[in-house]
Amino acid sequence: MVAIKTSAENRVLLQNISWQTFKTMLAEMGSERNSRFAYDNGTIEIITPQMPHENSNRVIEAFVGVLCQELGWEIKRAGSLTLTRDDLQKGAEPDSSYYIQNEALVREQENIDLAIDPPPDLVLEVEYSRSAIDKLRLYAAIAVPEFWRYNGSVLRVYTLAGGQYLEVQTSPTFAPVSVKEIPRFIAEAKKNGEIATTRAFRAWVQQNISDRKP
Fold it and tell me: Which of 47, 88, 96, 140 is the most buried (most CB within 10 A)?
C-alpha cells in the first residue's frame, strides 16, 4: 500500500488487486462515503478529497451549470457516478460528471449501465496531486467524449479522437466560451465569495456569447 497526503486530497494505492475484488469493495463500502475509487491494470486508487479539492470541484460544477443555461443546453448532473466496464476491467469515480449532449437519453434513468448506456459527455478530475493511474487512458477506454483536469491553477481540456485524448484550447461543448479562464474565477471566488463570483461569471459568459454572434 502506498499513501500520499496533501492539504487538498489523500491518495491510497493498492496494487495487484483483482477486478472482482475491486467490484466487491465497491459493493461492500456502498455509496455513502466521501472517498472515490479508480481501477486500472490491477491498481486501485482511493482518493479522499479535502476542502481545497472539494471546493474547487463544487465551484466548477456551478460554472458548468451557468454555461449550460446560457448556451441553451440541458444537463443531468451525475456527480461521482461509478463508471465501470466489466469487459475492459476498468472503473472510475470522477469528481464530477455530466450528461449534456446525451442528457435526453438518460433523463429518467436512476441507474447507468455502460454496457448499454452512453458514458457521461464530460467528466472532471480535480488533481492537486497527480494520480498514479493514467486517467487519460482510463477515461478514453470508457469512451468519455470530453475530459477536464484541474490542478489548482490550470484547467486542461481534452477531447476524444480515435480512441485517444487530444488537449485542446476550446471545449467543443461550450464554444465559443473559453472555459480555460475558469481558474481565474475560482481565485476570485476566494476573495469575493461564490455567489458574487457566479454572477460575474454569468455576465462574462453572456458577453462572450454576445461578442461572437454574427
Answer: 47
Cα–Cα distance for residue pair 16/115, rounded to 1 Å: 25
What is the spatial distance between Cα 68 and Cα 210, in angstroms, rounded to a whole number?
15
What structural domains and CATH numbers belong to the chain? 51-211 (3.90.1570)
Q: Is the pLDDT of residue 3 over 80?
A: no
The DSSP 8-state label assigned to residue 146 in this structure reads E
Closest Cα partner for 179 from 68, 79, 24?
A: 68
Backbone angles phi, psi at 97, to 5 degrees: -145, 150
Angle formed by the axes of helices 51-71 and 194-211, nearest 10°: 40
Q: What is the pTM of this model?
A: 0.93
- Angstrom distances, CA of residue 41 to CA of 14, 16, 17: 11, 8, 9
The span from the CA of 213 to the CA of 205, in Å, is 13
d(CA 137, CA 143): 10
Q: Which of 30, 25, 27, 28 is nearest to 12 (CA)?
A: 25
Smallest Cα–Cα separation from 142: which of 166, 112, 171, 118?
Answer: 118
Helix (H) or strand (E) holding 46: strand 43-49
Tens digit of pLDDT for each residue in 67-118? 999 999 999 999 999 999 999 999 999 999 999 999 999 999 999 999 999 9
